[in-house]
User: Which sequence fits this backbone?
């Protein structure tokens, strides 16, 4: 069974559209994250939720809105997509960063045309 | 901003050789972690070293940490073609809630 699963794997859409990416983890972890990886492979944290509560909100445009209906799910909704939003978006989860690592999903490759 | 810089950016070696990757970071960390990313895949956690540890081993992996120099290194011994991937260091900061990644090293192991 996949520990952190995100859907869809690929997403191609036009500028101006609104899209969502879903993430689910079955590890029982308390904290979930969204990371963005650009074309140069730089990974940057976007959001973090702990038990459905937002704890990290980096400098991300308001067009990006995370939603955590429960601690096993963290979805990312993006409004008015722009060309610069094209990237790979990774969901991850962790239990305690002080002793353990993150478990990442396999990524969603978003292409805005 | 990125937590750290990795060096080299790219490394190409022959199977059986050792691969060493270095990571320098900017701010104080609770621990430092190394991840592997195969092409087109997610990141896989390899090893974690706490700020009060200097060296750690896991199989063919050896990690060192020098907090005075704000640097870490990852050594992969007896490399295999399957080790071909990008390797990232990442530091836990901000009270333990935030993992910030370095720029990554692309390792290619040739047969």
Assistant:
């Amino acid at each position: 069974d996949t520990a952190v699963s995100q859907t869809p794997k690929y997403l191609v859409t036009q500028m101006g559209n609104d899209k969502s990416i879903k993430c689910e983890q079955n590890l029982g972890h308390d904290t979930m994250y969204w990371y963005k990886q650009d074309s140069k492979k730089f990974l940057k944290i976007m959001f973090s939720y702990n038990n459905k509560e937002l704890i990290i909100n980096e400098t991300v445009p308001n067009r990006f809105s995370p939603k955590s209906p429960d601690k096993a799910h963290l979805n990312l909704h993006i409004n008015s997509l722009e060309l610069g939003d094209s990237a790979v978006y990774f969901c991850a989860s962790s239990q305690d960063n002080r002793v353990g690592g993150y478990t990442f999903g396999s990524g969603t490759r978003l292409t805005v045309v | 901003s990125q937590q750290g810089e990795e060096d080299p950016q790219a490394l190409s070696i022959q199977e059986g050789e050792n691969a060493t990757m270095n990571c320098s970071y900017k701010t104080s960390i609770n621990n430092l972690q190394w991840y592997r990313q195969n092409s087109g895949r997610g990141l896989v956690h390899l090893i974690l070293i706490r700020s009060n540890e200097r060296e750690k081993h896991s199989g063919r992996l050896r990690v060192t940490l020098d907090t005075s120099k704000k640097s870490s290194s990852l050594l992969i011994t007896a490399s295999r073609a399957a080790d071909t991937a990008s390797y990232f260091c990442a530091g836990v900061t901000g009270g333990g809630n935030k993992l910030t990644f370095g720029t990554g090293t692309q390792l290619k192991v040739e047969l």
